[in-house]
Amino acid sequence: MNAIVVIIPTYNERDNLPLITARVRAAVPGADLLVVDDDSPDGTGLLADELAAADDHVHVLHRTAKNGLGAAYLAGFRWAIEHGYDIMVEMDADGSHQPEQLPRLLEALEEADLVIGARWVPGGEVENWPKRREILSRSANTYARLMLGMPLHDATGGYRAFRRETLEKLDLEDVDSRGYCFQVDLALRAHRAGLRVAEVPITFVDRVHGSSKMNSSVIAESMLRVTAWGIRSRFGR
């Protein structure tokens, strides 16, 4: 059986971490978890250590600063590869990604190199999201699809399953995307490498505890980078 690790970046997610950990362990009992904590001032890292001490399937990677989602996942990927995992899963700590739907991503990965849990495909749903967030997400994905020529409906989606070999082919040392455009970056690299990228419908549920990490600087970074990638692909620069 392939070794699976679910990578969960955290920053001030103390109220969410115990529940998401328990749900992952129940949904895929054979999987491990890696909590990548960016020195959360609310004590998330200390709580993660307590969860790890009580369960051999839970591991913690402490980072010394909040350097963005992309940097956290890259650190998690490196840790997972060094520790011999075959499948790496991205999952939010806030419960917006349903661990109970993880088996469908893993099943789809049997015929793909990267699987994205997609909100904007038939069967995909969002719950409790403000209309403006839905419009922003749909618009961002449409823009990315048109600018980059990727046949994906949810390139910004952060619920993903990767094969180890996929990550090893994506030149991760060259990735410097920090915010949510990190997801577009990796999807684009996989698409341009000719890898098999599949989308499966998921139900995305807005967080109950804590606050979203989305802000104007994250949106600006995504727009600028996607635009630059699109221009370079068209004009060869």
From TrEMBL:
<keyword id="KW-0808">Transferase</keyword>
<feature type="domain" description="Glycosyltransferase 2-like">
    <location>
        <begin position="6"/>
        <end position="170"/>
    </location>
</feature>
<dbReference type="GO" id="GO:0009247">
    <property type="term" value="P:glycolipid biosynthetic process"/>
</dbReference>
<dbReference type="InterPro" id="IPR039528">
    <property type="entry name" value="DPM1-like"/>
</dbReference>
<dbReference type="GO" id="GO:0016020">
    <property type="term" value="C:membrane"/>
</dbReference>
<keyword id="KW-0328">Glycosyltransferase</keyword>
<comment type="similarity">
    <text>Belongs to the glycosyltransferase 2 family.</text>
</comment>
<dbReference type="InterPro" id="IPR001173">
    <property type="entry name" value="Glyco_trans_2-like"/>
</dbReference>
<dbReference type="GO" id="GO:0004582">
    <property type="term" value="F:dolichyl-phosphate beta-D-mannosyltransferase activity"/>
</dbReference>
<dbReference type="Pfam" id="PF00535">
    <property type="entry name" value="Glycos_transf_2"/>
</dbReference>
<dbReference type="InterPro" id="IPR029044">
    <property type="entry name" value="Nucleotide-diphossugar_trans"/>
</dbReference>
<protein>
    <submittedName>
        <fullName>Dolichol-phosphate mannosyltransferase</fullName>
    </submittedName>
</protein>
